[in-house]
Amino acid sequence: MSVKMRLTLQSRIINMMIVSSVLLVSAFTFIQVNNQVQNISRYNSYQANLSTVLVKNNLQAMLKGAAAEDVPGFLRVAIASLAEAEITNHLIVYDKDGKIIASSNNQVGETVSFKDLSKADDLKSLLSQNKWYFSSIDRLKHQLNIYVALTEQPGILGYVAKISLPLASIGEALNQVYIPVIIAILVVIAANIILSYILSRTVVGPIKMLNEVTKIIAAGDLAVRTDIHTEDEIEELGATFNYMAGELVKMKERAENANPLTKLPGNIVIHEQIDKRINSKEKFMVIYCDLDNFKAFNDKYGIAKGDEAIKLTSEVFKESVKVKGGPDDFLGHEGGDDFLLLTTPDRAEGVAEYITSEFDKRVRSLYSEEDLKAGKIIAHARDGSIKEFPIMTISLAGVTNAHRPIISYVEVTNIAAEIKKKSKAIPGSSFVVDKRKD
Fold first, then answer.
1. Is 110 within the bounds of a domain?
2. From start to end of 244-317, where are the E strands?
3. What is the pLDDT of residue 306?
4. Which of 390, 392, 360, 388 shows the shortest CA–CA distance to 375?
5. In what order do the strands lie in the sheet with 338-343?
6. Which residue segment(s) compose the domain that 276 sits in?
7. What is the model's pTM?
8. Out of 273, 280, 333, 407, which residue is the most buried by the measure of CB atoms under 10 Å away?
9. Which residue, among 27, 38, 24, 23, has the nearest Cα to 176 in the 3D structure?
10. Domain count, the chain
11. CA-CA distance, 181 to 25, in Å (whole number)?
């Protein structure tokens, strides 16, 4: 079974830096070599033009008035003089038959190639156009050949002088630029070291920290936090991560505090929600719920049926929020048959009406046909005596700051206890709101 190698972020960054550095140095080297080749070519062109003029003038001066038998000697002296002056170091002079009569490298007496011999015919044509030289590139030998017409009489070709100059080469250019290239490589290496250090401190390091902290949180320790100070998006990401960890702590607390039967938030979250609205000075209505005759029902039908009654109440409350409530409404379950709904004063009446009507219709499904026909059940009262109890109803008590200020959660619960007694005193399901102004 093959194991797939996984590149780390740091190794990816290093690979990218190496590739980019190689490309950068290669581009720099190419530019430098190209510029150097152009410089050498310009120099060679200048040298070629200068050499051509000097060769023409010197050799032509030797031919003027010289006897035919003296021409080779005069030309050799002239060529030696040009070589000593470093005007050219590769020069031959040959006649119309292609025989070399003077040379800078001991080729006297040899015959030039057919290609060079044909140049004499070309020069004859050029002389008729008042032109006395032309150039040709020998790519095989990588050199520039300049053919100069030497005349014994005006307009009549006597001899051909061939000047050979080397063309600019890549090797020569590299010899000229290797020091700048080495310096560039050292600068790139130093820049990469500095950049690697900066990236390690500002990118790789913080990401590793986030990764480690994530693993710790996943293991169950929600108290751990990041400490990133890069003054950029990564620091913002760290702050967001810390905020998320804090919210996870709150979610855990809410989950632990939630009622196991209905999954609704419990006392801690209820307290937080009421305090939040009090502190923000929002107008709110707290609707407290109490099931009438629930204990008697639970005693007769058993705990399982009692749980069904609690779940039914929870479903009715949830539906009331969806149908009549608002998006910011909150529903909590303090335990047993005590539910709490937090809404706005303008929605409270509609929500309460939905709860009482739906509860009255659905609660009947929990009773036997016999008890429904009788409209009551027989069960033990709190004092142990046997009594008759009506079908369950629901009593709702409303506490609001719409009529008077409310400053604490404790004050809400105290008022609710009073109003709930009044609501339970009314036969059937009811909703009573505290409208006192003081």
1. yes
2. 285-292
3. 93
4. 390
5. 330-335, 338-343, 285-292, 393-400, 430-433
6. 258-433
7. 0.50
8. 333
9. 38
10. 3
11. 7
